[in-house]
Design a protein that fits this description.
about 280 residues; binds magnesium ion; about 25% helix; alpha+beta; Creatine Amidinohydrolase; 15 strands
């Protein structure tokens, strides 16, 4: 069942989302060769608690940490450890925060030091595909329209779209209906409704789409051991259009990246859900 949200609930969800956005911005400054994932995880937990929220992932389905940290061939759900990151690595950091009864949940894949051109391209295309997907989250469209847009764009670049893991509705529960696959057919699936909030999260592999799981029961990685990228935003459907509750502005500020990619989807002042 899809739980649409009121204007007031979306405001609260934005608060939770922005705590995650700020956490990712804080982490962006810390990610460099030699840094220790588990140390960053502890910093993120402190940061989230200092902002009056609880880490959204810790304890959820018994996940042990605040962040999912997935370097290189790891797709998602990597467990932070004490192995230092190396120059040339990439690392997906997925973070959740819970405040006022609602979850925020989004992810960014960072470069560690100097990354090779092919991997940089994977990050760039995956991030762009996220916005292609967001653009389809409009009244009258359906779940398959988002997946179709992401799949078409990324496969055109020769990449593999992970099938087993998908985006999702978001709210009082981390994973609500509907599932939002990163592949699909135009015009198929559930219809989008005013007041829906979803997490769109392309997980895109440089090589084939196939994945495997480590014996820890969590870590998902590519079967061909080629790199994988993951970007995620929380988006509300307001007045028929996709509006970002999360932002990468804090990450971009920290990394000196100039981009206008979020501009068409900015959260409007005095926004009102028309239900
Ligand atoms: Mg996530
Ligand atoms: Mg998610």
């Amino acid at each position: 069942m899809i739980h649409t949200k009121t204007t007031e609930e979306i405001e609260l969800m934005r608060e939770s989302a922005l705590i995650v956005s700020k956490t990712l911005g804080m982490l962006a400054k810390e990610i460099k060769p030699g840094c220790i994932p588990l140390v960053l995880d502890k910093k993120a937990e402190e940061f989230i608690r200092d902002h009056g929220a609880e880490p959204g992932f810790k304890g959820l389905y018994d996940f042990p940490n605040t962040l999912c940290m997935s370097p290189n061939a790891q797709v998602v759900h990597g467990i932070p450890n004490t192995k230092p990151l190396n120059n040339g690595d990439i690392i997906s950091i997925d973070c959740g925060a819970f405040k006022n009864g609602f979850y925020g949940d989004h992810a960014y894949t960072f470069q560690v030091g100097e990354v090779n051109t092919a991997t940089k391209r994977l990050l760039d295309i995956t991030k762009r595909s996220l916005y292609k997907g967001i653009d389809k989250f409009r009244t009258g469209n359906r779940v398959g329209d988002i997946g179709f847009a992401i799949q078409k764009y990324t496969e055109r670049h020769g990449y593999g779209v992970v099938r087993e893991l998908v985006g999702h509705g978001l709210g009082k529960v981390m994973h609500e209906d509907p599932e939002i696959p990163n592949y699909g057919k135009k015009g198929r699936g559930k219809k989008f409704k005013e007041g829906m909030v979803i997490a769109i999260e392309p997980m895109i592999n440089q090589g084939k789409k196939n994945i495997k799981q480590l014996a820890d029961g969590w870590t998902v990685l590519t079967r061909d051991n080629l790199p994988s990228a993951h970007f995620e935003h929380d988006v509300a459907l307001i007045n028929g259009e996709p509006r970002l509750l999360s932002t990468f502005d804090y990450v971009h500020d920290a990394l000196d990246i100039e981009t206008d990619e979020e501009d068409p989807f900015r959260y409007p002042k005095n926004s009102k859900v028309h239900s």
